[in-house]
Design brief:
- With 551 residues, this protein is mostly beta strands.
- It has a domain of 195 residues: Immunoglobulins (Immunoglobulin-like, Sandwich).
- Helix content is 3%, strand content 53%.
- The protein contains 2 helices and 49 strands.
- The chain is globular.
- It starts with 33 loop residues before the first helix and ends with a strand.
- 46% of the residues are buried.
- The N terminus is likely disordered.
Length: 551
Amino acid sequence: ARRRRGASDDSWRPPQSAPDDTTLIPISYSPRSALALLAGVMLAVAGCGVSAPGGIDRFTGERITVEASADIHIVASAVARVALVRAIPDGLTVPRGGIIIFTAVAEDAAGRFLADVDFRWRMRDPLAGTVSDRGLFTAGSVSGVYTEVVEVTAVQRTDAGEFVATSAASVIVTSGFIDTSIVSVTIFPSTATVRPGERVAMRPGALGNFGGLVQDLALVWRVTDPDVGEIDQNGTLTAGSKPGFYEDVVQVQARRLTGSAPPVIGTASVRVLSLAEARGGVRAVVGPSVVVGRPGERFPLVLFAFDFQGRSVPLGDVRWQVRDPDVGVLDRDRLILGSTPGQYPASVRATAMLAGAYEGRTVSADLDVLVQRPLTQVLGVPGDAQVVPEVIRLQRGARARVSLLYFDANGLAVTTSEVEWRFDDFVVTVDARGRVSAVGPPGVYAGAISAEAPAVNGVTQTASATVILLGPMVRAEIVPGVVSLDVDGLAQFAALAFDAADNRLFDIQLVWELAAGTPGSVTASGLYVAGDRPGDYPGGVRLKATQRLAR
């Protein structure tokens, strides 16, 4: 591609894997990474990819539809099967070239932790970086927000076959380093309800002094009462055999990997059920298991119920209640976070009447919420600047808008589009108000847009953005492509769409459906609930992915 009017001459190269002796770079949120946080956190929460979908306001009327399918294998068994996998952490901020090790936990449909599981890792977008087969992630050289980009698949091998579950973590790649401290630590769940001998994964949340989550943590876990059970240094609690409620019995000491600040302690409580309660009860679970966000963000909520064997129990009407008004308000089954930052354990409660064999009984479950500081209160390093978004994905003929985000002499964020934009006119055009039009052929163009921030303390900084011009969709895939699950089991599918250059596409309309004869149901988000007829159902879950083309 030709480079004009000051566009960067740096060409993009796929990020390289780190050698085995690479020094680990501590990862966390910081005022220097506040640029990426301000620019991208809302995109990551909304799940719309590296950049917001290019503002296509003119369509040809032409649509491309691609179909994909996944195979279903339903078995009748009381043995616990993997139904859910979670990457830990499930979202992080990392500088270019930074390294962090992902871990993962797997659970059955009732939320019980499974140990006999292997994990497979892969990247859904090579721009974000690379990941090894052991979860070692190395950030790439292109800053931006990468939604659900690090994929983990839990594989459980049994005599009945291979059972899998898949999920993905999001990454924000920044251009800065870190300098923040821990002010408070929360453990999720704030109260763990477990059966004797059951294992549950406890997760820490450490808030930094600049309003974000600290992720370069050294953790020390312990329990203060041996009757509650044992906990390992991965935060996995194995419940003891003595029933009861144990308040603030789980402790974690968290400190930064760098620096000499003393550790900060967080606590959680545990309720150990009696055998009679465990065998006769129904467990209710709220999804998501915890909400971490900022004022005004919206989170859809759902309630599930399972019997002691992990089988799904049908629910009647579900009633949601906010138990602390500071946490926010409810809009039907969506939680809108309030304006007061803080930690709110068990602050939202769901109650439902059971149906089927348990008709007449009620269940309830609580949700932990952590509200971070509003974005408008986030401080940064004076003079730092960034084009927002730093990675722009557009079809040819589509439009988007960019702005320049920089921090003034007081560290306060300033956003403007009225700067002198420089751009590669082989790729895009940018007007004086930051409106971008895609004109070039499909490809990845590093530094195609740039601008110079106003001088702060006599120093100016130039920021640039990478443009990815997308082609028509040529293929779609369902992840995972094959699942085995129990009667009434759950499987969460994800849809991925690509152009001919294997660039991932996000502005795609998805329709999920079941093939004729496949028992069960599938939701609009790809959550499959197995039916009651064991058997093999090739292509049982189907996907129609449709892309509207710009003029």
